[in-house]
């Protein structure tokens, strides 16, 4: 199965939607892309430009959706939607952890949403969900549906 993602920037926020399998063959380039989002100079990178993968990574098909207009400010939040992800291995989790550390050092917040099934279980077992989706773990009154959606409960 392939791994795909789309990047959409709206002002100082970026959403990354994933699908397929994040594993040893795709985790490195994906993690690097997330780190580059948090550390890039906005004046040097147009917001609508597709993120490209090395030619030797045929399992990744990055795309970018149009945004309203390029932002001249640095990114403050990256949301990684794992709703379409079917599988994640330790290298995928390591890539998310590395991106989390890089974004934190650069004053940016990385948040994972919509982790379900085996992907959610892997994040729980490794403890990564505690910092990648802190709202989900820190609010005792939340239901599993809230954890899956990344949205606060009413």
Automatic annotation (TrEMBL):
<feature type="compositionally biased region" description="Low complexity">
    <location>
        <begin position="41"/>
        <end position="65"/>
    </location>
</feature>
<dbReference type="InterPro" id="IPR002645">
    <property type="entry name" value="STAS_dom"/>
</dbReference>
<dbReference type="InterPro" id="IPR036513">
    <property type="entry name" value="STAS_dom_sf"/>
</dbReference>
<feature type="domain" description="STAS">
    <location>
        <begin position="20"/>
        <end position="127"/>
    </location>
</feature>
<protein>
    <recommendedName>
        <fullName>STAS domain-containing protein</fullName>
    </recommendedName>
</protein>
<feature type="region of interest" description="Disordered">
    <location>
        <begin position="41"/>
        <end position="75"/>
    </location>
</feature>
<dbReference type="Pfam" id="PF01740">
    <property type="entry name" value="STAS"/>
</dbReference>
<feature type="compositionally biased region" description="Acidic residues">
    <location>
        <begin position="66"/>
        <end position="75"/>
    </location>
</feature>
């Amino acid at each position: 199965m392939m791994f795909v993602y789309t990047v959409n920037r709206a002002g100082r926020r970026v959403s990354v939607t994933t699908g397929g399998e994040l594993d040893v063959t795709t985790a490195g380039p994906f993690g690097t892309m997330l780190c580059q989002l948090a550390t890039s100079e906005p004046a040097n990178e147009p917001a609508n430009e597709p993120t490209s993968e090395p030619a030797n990574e045929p399992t990744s098909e990055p795309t970018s959706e149009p945004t309203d207009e390029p932002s001249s400010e640095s990114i403050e939040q990256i949301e990684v939607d794992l709703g379409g992800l079917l599988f994640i291995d330790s290298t995928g989790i390591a890539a998310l952890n590395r991106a989390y550390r890089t974004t934190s050092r650069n004053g940016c917040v990385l948040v994972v949403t919509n982790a379900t099934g085996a992907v959610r279980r892997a994040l729980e077992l490794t403890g990564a969900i505690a910092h990648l989706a802190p709202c989900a773990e820190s609010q005792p009154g939340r239901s599993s549906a809230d954890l899956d959606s990344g949205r606060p409960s009413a």
